[in-house]
Amino acid sequence: MPIKVLDPKTVSRIAAGEVVDRPASVVKELVENSLDAGATQISVEVSGGVGLIRVVDNGVGIPPGEVELAFERYATSKLDGIDSLASIKSLGFRGEALPSIAAVAQVDVVTCAAGHSGGTKLSLEDGVVSQRGSQSRSVGTTVTVRNLFRKLPARLKFLKSPATESSHIANVVSQYALAFPEVKFALFVDGRAALRTPGSGKLIDSVAQVYGLEIARNMLQIEGAGWESRTAVSSPQVTGVVASPAVSRSNRSYLSFFVNRRWIASRSLAWAVEEAYHRLLMEGKHPVAVINISLPPDTLDVNIHPTKTEVKFQNERAVFVAVQKAVRQTLVELTPVPRIEEVATAYRSPSTTRPVSGTPVRSDSLFGLFPSPPLPPPTPVVSLPVLRVLGQILSSYVVAEGPDGLYLIDQHAAHERILWERINAQRRQHEIEVQGLLEPVTVEVSPRQDEVLRSHYEDLAEFGFSIEPFGNRTYLVRAVPILLHNKDWVGMLRELLDSPSGGDKGDWAERITVSIACHSAVRAGQTLTDDEMRELVRELEQTTVPHTCPHGRPTMIHLSSGRLGKEFGRE
Ligand code: ADP
Ligand code: MG
């Protein structure tokens, strides 16, 4: 076949396919137009699958002289030349939606602009005006789309069942309801009210309507100010709500991102949020979150995708980090510190474990795996800001970035601090975790050590050591604290027994705690995986005294951004 230029009708149908690929994209475009028109009430009606789609708004309306123009390709009131493309604030800007929809359906529009008496009615068929007249209505616009894709059997064939298509429509309306809590949305599917939002301006009210009360009750407001206030004005501002780890979902469709109120899909931002929940959710569970990102419009390109559902950030990394931090900070500040028994499950081996005190080890979990007693009230413990791990140096120090500069964390000292607090908490609750040894281990001690050991049996037993005399300065060890399992606990015992035997009981308890923490902590020189580093930092964030190890030495060195600036002669 020779090359020939396609006729305009075919061209417009092909082009329309880019913007309008299913009923939900018609709804999306029409709702965006209503929002751009400043509507405070938007009602969406669908019936018979693709049979009828109607969007009614109380926005500014279209002046009578411009109604036809609105259906011309590339006709828009939102863009004034190429320069303004860099500072788009509206959701639409290409002037493609109305002509695209009109190319593949029958469209009626009834609109009345402020200051005009009476409305205009325009009907289009195959993209061509078939009727024009006047019809009264209040200020606003009603667009009715009938028989979508009727003339495009290829497209029609690929549509899913009406139920699936309406669920996509419901999702579109839900997302905009979340993005614009000040707008009153209503969605009717085959006459049934599927969604209504109050338009109160409060995000949580929209969340309650979209996701239900249970989720709404468990949402935490993102308090990003701690981080953002210290950074440049142009840095991304993150607001919104995230679910406490107590509620989660088994897929990622409960994550919504809005950039300057535009609903976008972004795998990298989804990942940023999931990262922030690292170790807070069970495997296979995903968070619920509504994340609003505001950025100066000239730092992003919204014009990279036909349906405008993707954007390109000038500084993608900065946005990723801002989202991750804002979410993480919210979670750390507002969620209960995981209880000790929950942390301990990771180490417990049920067949060989028994509680020292005789009280059964609790097997309940923070995440509702098993029935659990009511949680203690949240304990806000933030003496360390939220840190982002950058890497490890010398196999000994974790490098992390915080809101105010750089942190170098001594992995051993930090882990000692974490374990010291964990052991103390377990002791307070009489729930020290014990590891029974498959074979008892014999330990021979010096006469001096023998003396010390005799007088501190009980103290050691309190921490999970089961030690019995075996004659002739030899002892049988049957169980050790679980933290020391597979560690050099014999060395630890000898070291402990070599220390002066004086001191009261409390003194000894502290000594044993420090010793266990020290011997079970990661060593300097040990390479850590990214996961291990993040876990270490997360646990350190939750300690009450993160800055020093139990010996009183610092766990970290902080290089503030001011100090860094000075060092580089910036001030
Ligand atoms: P875009 O939204 O990219 O400008 P559209 O084809 O969606 O392109 O709409 C074309 C124009 O029609 C808009 O720029 C706007 O001026 C007008 N318009 C469309 N829908 C509405 C509405 N609901 N209320 C007021 N004006 C509207
Ligand atoms: Mg539009």
The shape is elongated
Number of strands: 22
Q: What is the helix content?
A: 25-40%
Low-confidence stretches: 225-230, 336-382
Which structural category do the helix and sheet elements fall into? alpha+beta
Count of runs of 4 or more consecutive helical residues? 18
Strand content: 15-25%
Overall mean confidence score, pLDDT: 83
Q: Give a list of the ligands.
A: adenosine-5'-diphosphate, magnesium ion
Strand line-up across the major sheet: 5-4-3-6-2-1-7-8
Structure write-up:
It is a single chain. This protein has 571 residues and is of the alpha+beta class. It has helices at 8-19, 23-36, 67-70, 97-103, 153-157, 162-179, 203-211, 213-217, 225-228, 267-276, 316-334, 340-344, 411-428, 447-462, 489-498, 505-520, 530-541, 561-567, and strands at 41-47, 52-57, 106-112, 119-125, 128-135, 140-146, 184-189, 192-196, 219-221, 237-243, 255-259, 262-264, 289-294, 300-301, 312-313, 388-393, 397-402, 405-410, 434-444, 466-469, 474-481, 556-559. The strands form five sheets. Strands 5-4-3-6-2-1-7-8 form an eight-stranded mixed β-sheet, covered by helices on one side. The chain has a five-stranded mixed β-sheet with strand order 9-10-13-11-12, sandwiched between helices. The longest helix has 19 residues, at 316-334. Bound molecules: adenosine-5'-diphosphate and magnesium ion (MG). Magnesium ion binds at residues 29, 32-33, 92, 97.
